[in-house]
Each structure stands twice: as C-alpha cells, then as structure tokens.
Amino acid sequence: MKLITFAGPPSSGKTSVILQLVKCLKAEDKTVCVVKFDCLTSFDHLRYKENGVPVQIGFSDKVCPDHYFVTNIEDVHYWAKNKGYDYLITESAGLCSRCSPHITGVLGVCVIDTLAGVDTPRKVGPMLKESDLVVVTKGDIVSQAEREVFAFNVRQVNAKAKVMFVNGITGQGAFMLSKHIKEAAEHQTLQGNTLRFTTPSAVCSYCLGETRIDRIFEMNMSKRLEIKE
Amino acid sequence: MKTKADFLVEIEQKPLGELVNQYPLVEDFLLNMRFDELPREVPLYQGILPLDTSHLAEFGLGKITLLDELAAFLQMFFAEEEKPLKAGSITVCGGHDKDGIKENIELVIRAGDIISVVGPTGSGKSRLLGDIECLAQGDTPTGRHIRLDGAALDEEQRFELGGRLVAQLSQNMNFVMDLSVEDFLRLHAKSRRRRDLEEVVSRCYDCANELAGERFARTTKVTQLSGGQSRALMIADVALMSSSPIVLVDEIENAGIDRRKAIRLLAKEDKIIFISTHDPLLALSADKRIVIKNGAIVRVITTSKQERAALVQIAALDDKLQNIRRHLRLGDVIEQDLTD
Predict the structure, then answer these.
(1) Do A115 and B32 touch (CB under 8 A)?
(2) A138 touches chain B (CB under 8 A)
(3) Which chain B residue has its CA at the smallest distance from A165's CA?
(4) C-alpha distance from B171 to closest chain A C-alpha (Å)
(5) What's the mean pLDDT in A75-103?
(6) What are the residues whose beta carbons fall under 8 Å from the beta carbon of B252, sequence distance 6 or more?
(7) What is the ipTM of this complex?
(8) Which of B72, B134, B191 is the closest to A176 by Cβ?
(9) Residue B60's closest chain A neighbor by CA?
C-alpha cells in the first residue's frame, strides 16, 4: 500500500484536491481511503462519504495535533493495509505552522492557496519546507503574475519540491498530481520510519490542562518571548 | 556551470554584504529564517557563530547545514540562466469523443498563431486546454496526444514542463496583492530574475496604459484598478513578463479595453494564443477556430475572406459602442444618430 501525507492550512482546499485526485486514481481501478486528522470539528468526512471514499476521522482535542498524528499514524496505516486499499491518504489540518506530518520515505504533499497572499509560502513552515509536492489551489481567480510570484516564493522556501497548480473545483491539474502520486513508495509498516521534522516540545503544565496565567503555574520548560526595546 | 561547491566557497569567503549585493535573493533566504540583523562586513559563518543554535534548529538546520542549504539555494537559482520556455509549435493528435468515436485530427499550431475555440458549455473546451497543459500522451480521458515542437515527450519532460506551459487570462481573475502597480510589476520581474528589471517594468506599465481606456498611475494600488485597467495590466504582464509560451484567454470583458490590440500584443511576443470566447470580435480575430462537440474537435475553420470583411463591420460597430461608452462616462449627451 502507498501512503501519502497531505497537510496545509485550514480552508486551503485539501479535501477538494484529494477528492479530485481520488477521481483520477479510481479511473484506473485503484482503491483509496482517507484518514482525516483534525482538532475540534470537521465536516470533511461527510464530503468523503458523499463521494464514496472510505474515511476515518480523528480529533486531537486537547492533545497537540502533531503529537496526536504521530502517535496514531501507525495504527491507521495498519488498518488501511489490512483492508487491502491501494492508497492511504492522510489529511491533517490544524497542525500549527510549526509542524509537519511528513515522514521520511513517505510522499508528502502540502496544499496552499493563492488567496492567502503571496508571502504565505514564506510563513507556512516545515509542512511546506519538508514536502515533496506543493499543490497550489485557487489559482484561477488571481492574476497569472501572482501565480508566478507565488510559485517562486514556494521555490525560495523549498527548492526541491515540485510545484503544481490544481483547481479543486474543476479538477484541472489533478491528472498531473495523480501521476506524481503513483510514484509514491510502498510501505508494509511505518515502524522504523522517522518524522522529517520534530514536533514541538509540549511538556509544560499547560499541555496538561493548566489555564491560570502566572509563573508559579508554569511547570517544566517554557520559552520566553524576548521583548526588544 | 557553477557547482554547489563553488557557491559554498563564495559563501565562506565573501562578506555577507557582498554576497547579498551579488545575489539579492540571499536576503529573502535569510529573512525566511528570521535573520534580519546579521553583520554584513564578515562572511555568514562568522556572523552566525555567536548565535544560539536553537534558533537554527527551529528551521531544521545547524550552523554548518545552514551554509550548505544556502549553497544549494544559490545553485538552484543562479547556477545557470533560466532557460526561457519555448514552444515553436504544438501538435494536437486526435483521441476520441465522449462516445469513444475516433477524433480524426492532427493540428499543428505555431508560435504567433491565434486560435479561437468555440462550442457549447460542456462540449470539452477546457478538456482540450487541459490536455495541452499536461502534454497528454494518450493517458487523459480524451485519449489525445500533444507534441511539442513536433516531438512526443517523455515523462520526465512532462513533469518538468507541466503547469508552466500555459498562462491564463480570464474574466474571473483578480489582483489580491496589496501593492502599487509599480511594486507589483517589480516583484514579478524579480521572480523572473529579469536583468532588465526597470526597463521591463516601464514597458509593461506603458503597454497596459495603452490598452486600458482610462490611464492609471504607477502608484495606483493594483486592487484599486477598474475592471478594464486590471485586465489591461494582466495582459501586458502576460505578454511581456510571463514565462509561459502558450496563453489561454477565457473571455475578456467588453468594457474599457482594446481587445484586438491586446490579442495582437500577445501574438507579437511569439506566444500561441487560444481564445475561448463567444464574442464575435474575438472569435473572428483568430486565424483559425476549432469547433468542439461532444468532447472532440469536429472542425477547424480558417477565418474566410468574407469573415474578415465581416470583422471590419463588427469592429466598426464595436468602436461605435466604445465611443458612446466613453462619452457617457465623461458626462456627455449622446446626440449622434445611432442608426447610421
């Protein structure tokens, strides 16, 4: 089974792109399932169901979304493989910009949209920097110049990745994406694989539910914002 | 061609200030990692020596890997001049229609050609453009093959070119950047690494003003341009600055822009132009028009003498309309007889 990790800021169009991709893969008689990792609420699983895509959904709730992802990815991989699917796609939103679900040796895709502004690629962080493919959405409603500048800014942050424009509504560009997806490596297990980038060290009292603001309630590590004159 | 090792030597020897002067993108590289106060008079490795390693670790780097990453970055952008994408010709080799019936066609389109694409909604116009964009090799739903400069492409070339061949211009496009016209053009020129930056920015600006009905200033924000002015700026920019050799024009609005001049401008820059339109003025301005029905090209019509003659009349009508529009805008009273 091939695993592909999709990440991207909320509302960048991940679900729409994945659904267009599934269409292309289904046309070649491949089976695809999706696992959606989210924080609090999500309606995306309904869209997958409507389109006949088998889907699992998990909410990280009070756990750091990235820690939640990494501690659950092996189980869902095992599940999907036993079900006999050809592809497992994980979709994670709500990862903070500090993190990335991408795993060494596993094809990693980052979805970002042009409407978020041309400098967005420079702010997104490891989920973009550590990805193999960068899918840019909503390119049909901004000028060609902005599309080109956007792609350039992506390359400045991640020169190795392939940058492609996919229209989540019409599916334009999804075919080329599917050709890349088909190159993804097969994985029997994820044991022994590593995350491409560390998750944040969330081991303070606030991770455990503390809400009161005062240094006396801070346990373990904390990072002070440096206030400059 | 410079190797990564060559760039590494430069990074190690040159003071940061000199490096930035030579390769302005180094500034962006460092800013992306929140390095905005590094000393300029010493090489980068000396400048970062006193820094806390945890800052670099947040970007997945260390003091040595930072230099390495910068060398790879410079190699990516500066090792060789970016080769302009060229398409001397594209050939569309027929696949099949929606019912699987063979599409009997082999159509060669050359740089500078203007082709209009007509057919009802859902007939397969965007599929055709999609095939060209991904350089279909019999593997898309239409079964078409697209050849570039007469040759079929292997997978690697397709991956390389995919998505960069076709620039788009459509009615639905907007500017979203909050920049002045001048800064906007400069940013685009910089991303194309144009050496003639100021010159191309000026040409673009002048050209856009020539196409637009109403003039705008260099300092106008792109988001404040009227519909016609925006379209004019987008067209001038695609003609003079975009890297894509093929342009897809998906309707251009009637108001406030000289459409024929715009199309001619694109053709002059040796681009291949597809116009998907129902506007008679644009459809007949093309050299040929492709008729699409049920997913396949059913006819290729070369614009006839009679059609060209009709175009003159249509253009006269169009001028008249534009003229009336202009007068209304200026607050004039329309006194001429509209029927003559």
Answers:
(1) no
(2) no
(3) B163
(4) 9
(5) 88
(6) B169, B171, B231, B235, B259, B262, B277, B279, B282
(7) 0.80
(8) B134
(9) A197
Minimal CA separation from A56 to chain B, in Å: 30
- Among the partner-chain residues A140, A156, A175, the one whose CB lies closest to the CB of B28 is A156
* Dihedral sign, Cα of residue B22, residue B160, residue B86, residue A21: negative
A26 Cβ under 8 Å from any chain B Cβ: no
- Residue-wise pLDDT for B244-299, tens only, equals 899 988 777 665 677 788 888 888 888 899 988 878 888 888 899 999 999 999 99
Q: pLDDT tens digit string along A98-125?
A: 788 899 999 999 999 998 888 888 888 8
Contact A142 B176 (CB under 8 A): yes
What's the CATH number of domain B89-303, 3.40.50.300, 1.25.60.10, 3.40.50.2000, 2.60.40.1120?
3.40.50.300
Given A149, A159, A164, which is nearest B162 (Cβ)?
A164
pLDDT (0 to 100) of residue B256: 62
Handedness of CA B147, B149, B150, B151 (dihedral sign): negative
Q: How far is A152 from chain B (nearest CA, A)?
A: 6
Q: What CATH number is given for A2-217 in this structure? A: 3.40.50.300
Q: With 80 as the cut, is the pLDDT of residue A199 above it?
A: no
Decide if pLDDT at A94 tops 70.
Answer: no
Instruction: Name the token pair of A79.
Output: 């599940």
Average pLDDT, stretch B302-324? 88
Could you tell me the residue ranges of all domains in chain B?
4-78, 89-303, 306-340
For residue A95, the model assigns a pLDDT of: 64
Strand partners, A4: A89, A107
SS (H, E, C) chain B: CCCHHHHHHHHHHCCHHHHHHHCCHHHHHHHCCCCCCCCCCCCHHHHHCCCCHHHHHCCCCCHHHHHHHHHHHHHHHHCCCCCCCCCCEEEEECCECCCCCECCCEEEEECCCEEEEECCCCCCHHHHHHHHHCCCECCCCCCCEEEECCECCCHHHHHHHCCCCEEEEECCCECCCCCEHHHHHHHHHHHCCCCCHHHHHHHHHHHHHHHECCCCCCCCEHHHCCHHHHHHHHHHHHHHCCCCCEEEEECCCCCCECHHHHHHHHHHCCCEEEEECCCHHHHHHCCEEEEEECCEEEEEEECCHHHHHHHHHHHHHHHHHHHHHHHHHCCCCCCCCCCC
- Contacts A–B by Cβ distance under 8 A: 103
